[in-house]
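## tool: complex_structure
## caller: assistant
## args:
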Amino acid sequence: MKKKPNKSKPAPKNLMPPPEPETAGTRLVRWLVGFGIMGAAVAYAWMQRPQTPPFAVYVPRPVGQLTFDKDIAPIVFRNCAECHRPGQSAPFPLLDYAAVKKHAKDIATVTADRYMPPWLPEHGYGNFVGERRLSTDDLGKIQQWISEGAAEGVASDLPAAPTWPSDWHLGEPDLVLTMAEPYELPAEGRDVYRNFVVPSTVTTPRFVKGVALRPGNPRVVHHAFVKVNSDGQSRRLDAEEPGPGFGGMDSQATMPDGQFLGWQPGRLPAFGPPGLPWRLNPGDDLVVEMHLNPSGKPERVQPSVGLYFTDEPPTNTCFKIALTSLRLDIPAGERDYVVEDRFELPTDVEVLAVLPHAHYLAKEMKGWATLPDGSKKWLLFIKQWDFNWQGDYRYAVPVFLPKGSVLSMRYTYDNSTQNPRNPNHPPKPVSYGPQSTDEMAELWFQLVPLNRADLPRLATAYETKFAVHFRESKEDALRKNPDDAKARVDLGVILLSQKKPDEAERQFRAAIEAQPAYARAHYFLGLVFRQTNRGLEARSEFETALQLDPTDGKSHGNLGFILAEQGDLDGAQSHFETALRLNPADALASDALAELRRARSRRGTH
Amino acid sequence: MPWLGPLVLVAGLMTQPGCSPEPSAPGIASTDASAITLQPASLGLVDLDGKPADPFAAGQPVVLFFLRTDCPVSNSYAPEIRRLRDTCSGTGIAFWMVYPDPDEPIADIRRQLADYQLTGPALRDPKTALARLAQARVTPEAAVFNAAHALVYHGRIDDRFAAFGVKRTEPTQRDLAEVLDCIVAGRAVTNAPARAVGCAITFVP
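## result:
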């Protein structure tokens, strides 16, 4: 275990080179002090320093020589203008001298704080595409220029203002899908986390090489993820809530085929990794998860998704791994709650991208790999997490990790009043959960196995790891409340997936005892019975499940199979048809129905 | 959570935070020694039609909200500004929106007032003289003058912003609401100026 960080001295903190300076002047002093006091620790830190140490110090320019036209415009055009232009997410444009001069005081503040440009990862702890972070030199120039009165300069020095091709950076998409009606965001109140279902219109399976999102109202959209749902669950959740979309972060939808499909203000859309398109099937729904910030007046949000297709099938398979804890339980007032997790890679991989996720209590996030030779490779370091600016980060060069490397995460959380983002005042205990007032601890990695044939090994190792997480968290929940029927069913589902039907059956029965009208428990008990060839008992459970929840398409599907086995073809057909009506993407039901109709037409019964 | 300050006062609780237990003495500046004899004509204030404006003309307590059209922090306070003003309706306190950026187009100001439903009097402060007088630094920021036109409070409306981009779910300190409670109750304001978070006002030299 590493030494506990000492907050008062910069150098030894986490045995890392010190943070970038608040101002250029204080930096060198802090460094020298650090060397004097903690020379040994610093020397050790250097041995473990990140690939590109953030060591540059701003060298002030001669007084009065920095001008907007010559020195500042290029920095602003490169780092700010993408958002600070009409129609984009920023509140005002920064495309000419007058605008920059008018906002000079705020620019000095927000750049020194590193609030702008918004970019959470520390420089040098992973080399990412599109790093929106001012270099020490650029930051120093901005600060010096403003402190000297922000001179304009001579027009002949001014570079041309950047231009942007169209709203679709990647060109006209092959298919644009727009949400049917806009969502009305209230003028004020908590941030809104909402999922919008956008049905896809593809009629044949397509490989998607790129996704671009037009958020529809960039001023209020802080980040978005595009996900896919194939079983109609998201649509159902949408229907249960008034207005477009539904709330929370548990949308039943997932980012497909190991992809990260994120949108953040200022991030240029890009095609996915070469050779790794994902498959969009007919009947799939796109689900756009959006984090919206009220602006002070009612706002309308109506996202569009642009899809770019390719005929080339993938040459490898992306795989996502989450380091996580489902057992988060942060006491009220705790300032330094630590979550750690690790995973040993059973194969050689390349890491393509990383996606950290937590809510309002997380502060520091670290991700790294320990290679079999003991060396440490940084994959991500965020000093101050900000839920508002979350997103995924793609490595400029895929990071090779040999078999036996261990991926590690370490997050810390502040559940005290010292954390102004704390949604609870006064603080209260916060545990794992999907609402933004719950907490999460996830560090996702997008990987490809170096050898495609290794994928099953990777998948099995990860599933085993995840089952342990899941099982532990459910056992925690049941220790707290033995009558937690949902936790019992969840635990049973894991046991069932681990081919332990007897143990699973006990959990499902206990869930029904605790909550007799719990449709999901009856459904899974029915499934155990089906798997263990107890057709009559299975039928009774599925029928009970349907009495409790007539919209449960899977119970209809299972009943269809049982009735078909029992020779009741009319009944079977009716259940398959209902299953398919409830979920048009239910391939099992549609195959079974087709099979049944063929069989019946051969026999001339229909 | 609804703002219940005035009700609490009506119920007879006399030690509202920030208020002196002593009644305020009209004509005497309660906290700010630099109380100035106002000469509104010299401030160069104009209404949205360009005509001279004087928020102090009626001799009543005055609350100023310094705003700008392109500051998201400022905009996000529109509902709270409306709420505070509505809560004080009938108390004789005058509320003014003040735009201290001389370059802001009138059309943008009018559009903002309409979009954010900020009804009520608005004025421009093209010399930033009123902002200086009110010791405002950023938008949004509040300044409160008592009936004798002494500056009794200036600073944040509440503490929902801890810094740029760092926002509490709910404010834990409602500075301006407390000050208004004091004024409505006829008590002297003792709230210290509380630093506001927002977009810097650029002062006209």
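## assistant note: The interface with chain B takes residues 91-92, 98, 102-106, 109-110, 113, 115, 118, 187-188, 190, 219, 294-297, 386, 388, 420-423, 425 of chain A (CB under 8 Å). The first helix of chain A runs from residue 24 to 47. Handing back to user.
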